[in-house]
Request: fold
Amino acid sequence: MDDSKVAALLEDIRSQFRVFGDGLQMLNEKIDAQGQKLSDKIDSWDHRVKSMDQRVTSMDNRLTSVDQRVISLEVSNSNEHRLILHMLKELSEEQQKLKHAK
Reply:
């Protein structure tokens, strides 16, 4: 093969490599852009999950507080119920005494 044919063949190969390189560069840019979009979405989801976690923790604290208040009210209610029963018993006894006194 003569030098001019070899030169033409090499130039054709170089040209094909340039086209291949350009295509590869475009593909890399698309992948980078998609990767950035995916990274942004992941960051957004991460932020939302952290926010939800904080809200759940806050709700858990509030529920704990409500639970403690309910327990306190139950104890107070139980004490008041016992006191009312005791007062009713005393009233009944006084009523019986008054009936016998007549």
Remarks:
- The CA atoms of residues 61 and 67 lie 10 Å apart.
- The mean pLDDT is 94.
- Residues 3-101 form the longest helix (99 residues).
